[in-house]
Amino acid sequence: MKKGLFIVLINFYMLYVYAAIYQCVDDKGIIIFKDSECVASEKLINKKHTKSQVNISAPKIQTENIFAKNLVKNSNFDNKLLDWRVPLGMLWTSNGGKNGSGGLMVHAEEPPKDRYIHETMASQCVLLTEASKFEVSADVRLQGLPNKNTANRVNVIWYESTNCSTGGQWGAYLQPKPIEGWQHLVGENLTPALDAQAVKITIVQNGRYSDDGKAYWDNIRFYPSEVFKQSSMDKTHLNASNKKYTLEPGRNYIKNGDFKTDVSAWRAGWKNEWSSTQGHLFPGAAKIIAYSNTGSKGRHALQQCVNLGANRKFIAGARFKNGETSSQLGGGRLRISWHQGLNCSGRSKTDTNWVDPEYIGGWQKLRITDLRAPVKSQSASIEIIQSIRGAGRFIAYWDDVYFEAVE
């Protein structure tokens, strides 16, 4: 069910850890990014889509394309709020910046106790340059500490459209620590999504978590950090490479998809074991154990990279079974991410054609059809996601994973 959760893992600089982000879709089809799992019974609605709060018209999209130069316009707010799309709850301050200069002050109103997500957000859309990696940085000072660290953020979201309207995929975020005084936040090695042409930089405060506190932002920077490396592979070598990795339709690209004797060939996230007592048709399955001491979490359970060759159309599938000894509810997902280079290198794009199991007993058949690799992609990551809804342990079994080309 695609209005469930969509987990995107972000490897960001500040803590050198993987952070789980959930992309929730409500009953109106509105996409919402959040830190906790999208529960099926939740009808999350982003308030900004039901009532416009914008009091400044959308600025022109920035088209500056000079390598190593900050692509964000009016990044230090010396020109008040020019070039930023700003809602109510955000104000320009003449001396609130880091060095007593101009800055952006965010003070979200205290929201009512309802089921809406209340966020106050400023944004700017920037066209990407011909670079392979980018960096984002910002200075921030908190006045009044939030009750959750996720209250204040700078977000990076990649878009396939040049006006940041379609093809959105989560990139990264900067998040200040709950301390007083100015903090300098940096995110490095940001690789744009495959086919991304623009990036939206957002400055966000969650009214429910900010605890009536204020955040002062200054020096928002987004700039190229690494230029594309020109490949020496000519068309002849590329054709030879495609021939090398091309498999005939019906042959499984996945290694050890049946988990006959172990879980080798897979990159693991959650704790995993090989089960000799479980298995769809024959003994042998991957046992994945998701656990949490606090709230909901989600991450890659198993992941495998394959080179595509010349094939462009695929199908994928797996068998899934909920464990009977779990102490907490959970979920899963089978999805595909496409990569620009061989061995899952370069820019990537997560396919929106995925499949989720149900919370029922017995082995379930998961199948994805009509998978179409982007023209520029040379490899794919077959990703098994597993989540847990709260404190406890959620066990699931996976078997018979396949990824095949079709004619």
Helices and strands in order, then pairings?
Blueprint: E1 7-12, E2 17-25, E3 31-34, E4 45-46, E5 90-93, E6 103-106, E7 116-117, E8 119-127, E9 131-143, E10 152-159, E11 169-174, E12 182-190, E13 198-206, E14 214-227, H1 235-245, E15 267-268, E16 271-275, E17 285-292, E18 297-307, E19 313-322, E20 330-339, E21 348-350, E22 364-372, E23 379-388, E24 392-405
Parallel strand pairs: 4-7
Antiparallel strand pairs: 1-2, 2-3, 5-6, 6-14, 8-13, 9-12, 9-14, 10-11, 10-13, 15-18, 16-17, 17-24, 18-23, 19-22, 19-24, 20-21, 20-23
Describe this structure in words.
The protein is 3% helix and 44% strand. It has two domains: 51-105 and 119-227, Jelly Rolls (Sandwich), CATH 2.60.120.260; 243-405, Sandwich (Jelly Rolls). It has one helix spanning 235-245; strands at residues 7-12, 17-25, 31-34, 45-46, 90-93, 103-106, 116-117, 119-127, 131-143, 152-159, 169-174, 182-190, 198-206, 214-227, 267-268, 271-275, 285-292, 297-307, 313-322, 330-339, 348-350, 364-372, 379-388, 392-405. The chain is built from one helix and 24 strands. The model is unreliable at 1-21, 27-31 and 40-60 (pLDDT under 50).
